[in-house]
Backbone:
């Protein structure tokens, strides 16, 4: 049975393992010092960024990170930034349930839209995304900024 809930302090080791897997998937193998501590603190405060975990038979097997931001053309929108499931849990509905939980949360916050990005060649994830969301055909451009 899959359960979705906010991440508790005891979930930290499993969350970090999953988030490291997510970052490795996107080619970010080495993160700066304090990266995971800072992210965890943000999620635990729940003020700016939010996180949920999926447990399958009590084991943390999936995570999702998201936040709300204003929109010039609608009510505030919810951006699903990170979604990752452990390889052994894939195909069991974990990602679908995490997306549904964020959708429910965003609806409860009065958001006008939930959206996310993925790489064009992320074919496995896109099989699910094409079933639960609309691809509006936007292309993302990015300029990295140095702090």
Residues:
């Amino acid at each position: 049975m899959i359960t979705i809930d906010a991440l508790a302090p005891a979930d930290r080791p499993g969350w970090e393992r999953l988030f490291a897997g997510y970052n490795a998937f996107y080619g970010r193998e080495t993160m700066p010092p304090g990266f995971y501590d800072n992210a965890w603190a943000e999620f635990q405060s729940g003020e700016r960024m939010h996180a949920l975990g999926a447990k399958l038979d009590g084991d943390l097997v999936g995570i999702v990170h998201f936040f709300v931001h204003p929109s010039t053309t609608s009510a505030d929108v919810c951006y699903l930034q990170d979604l990752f499931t452990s390889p052994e849990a894939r195909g069991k509905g974990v990602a679908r349930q995490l997306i549904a939980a964020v959708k429910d949360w965003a609806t409860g916050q009065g958001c006008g839209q939930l959206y996310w990005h993925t790489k064009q060649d992320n074919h496995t994830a896109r099989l699910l995304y094409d079933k639960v969301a609309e691809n509006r055909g936007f292309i993302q451009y990015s300029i990295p900024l140095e702090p």
User: Anything to note?
Assistant: The mean pLDDT is 95. The chain has one domain: 2-132. Helices lie at 12-25, 35-45, 94-108, 123-132. The chain is about 35% helix and 25% strand.
